[in-house]
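lol ok so funny story. i was supposed to be doing the assay writeup but got distracted and ended up predicting the structure for this chain instead. priorities right. anyway since i did it might as well share w the group, maybe its usefull for someone
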Amino acid sequence: MARIVVIGAGMGGLAAAARLATVGHKVTLCEAAPTHGGMLGRYERDDFRFDTGPTLLTLPAVYRDLMLKTGRTRLEDEVELRPVDPGSVHLLPDGTRVTLANASLARVGSALDAALGGDAGGRWGAMLERGRGVWEATRRPLLEEPLPDDPSALHRDPYVPARRGLLARAPRTLAEVARRELRDARLTALLDEYALRFGLDPERAPASLTWLPYMEQSFGVWYVTGGLRALADAVLRRCEARRVDLRFGTRVTDVLGGDRVTGVRLADGSVLDADVVVDDRAPAASGGMPGRFTLLLALRGARPADTAHRTVVHAPDRADELDALFGPAPRPCERPTLQLLRPDDATLAPAGHETAVVTVTVPPQGPVDWTDTARVTAYADAVLAQAVQAAPELGERLLWSHARTPADTAAETGAPGGSVPPPSLAGAGGAFLSPSNTGAPAGLYRVGGGAHPGGGLARVGMSATVVAGLVGTP
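and the output, tada:
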């Protein structure tokens, strides 16, 4: 039985602690904040409740496995899990509206053909088929196994070009995939959104990112009743059941040891001895990535019956949005791509009322000063106006709104600049691979969005599985 200290009660830290305690290790979890969940925060006001981080779940099998392996229960025994249907509604740059089904490539293709014409569905489907090839080639080494000691095989992009032959060259970036294979600004907007939600520039992100839309549109998107905070609560309960020593309000300042870990030093100067340390803190190097601006909306009256859970309003000017996020002088885009989320969940609001959340990818705290109240207020007004254009009744029903910025994320989670960690991606010479789960000194492991296999709730859960396997059984 090893003495293990887990630093951080984000989802990676909680999942790793539960797995390690289940196999017999003595686990102490230290969290600087007074509560758990990390990015899966909660904001409450006037009996309205909001997730402040991710709101939807992909690949729920990751958390089904966690619940089964740590307590022999189904995920559905711990939380109410529902598929989101339709998967999304998109308002494209030219004003076209298209509704995409959840977990059905065939219905997605049919919807695109009907809305856009010109075999748009066929071209999108062909691209996703090549994304499937990326998924199959990289799923194990990039998601389910530790990063190899020699990751050079993952430096090469496995995306196969549409045409083969001696003169065919595979597209190097996601944007090149769009230009060569989609050839439609509206389809490009659909593809760009997958990069933008993780703060990635489609002009630089490798073509292998196509596995994200393939995975989402093949396997589906899910909602947890009560919001994803309910999932964090369920994993915390599993830690309690496995007798993890949970210490909130306990900040770790140093990992101790020479060639091998010996313990951690706490902010009060005391020391916890440890044979293994699992670190769920975000690395400082992640601070340059974009973050999220979130607008929480409390709405008067019940949610209309025909309301989509997720609506994506695409930026009308792609070049301006990319320049605002990734150009030499980062700034909030005046008319960005935004996501409007309106869950059908009576547990989030007083009886007869509704919650909605608008999210936008923005530069992190630093290049933009998100502590400037006037800036935040002005941007909140602009984002709300854009959301109201897409759903006019929002303006008529608004009781109040609350803006959250990368500065809030940084303050609450410790993420440098409030950045959102991206997923690991093959290609680009390894530039988009997350740091390994192992570190120096021996006995130190990294878990969570800042470590292999990268950001996103499913991949954070996978990182916990990888780390538990590396530590092993007593």
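The radius of gyration is 22 Å. The chain has a mean pLDDT of 96.
back to the writeup now i swear
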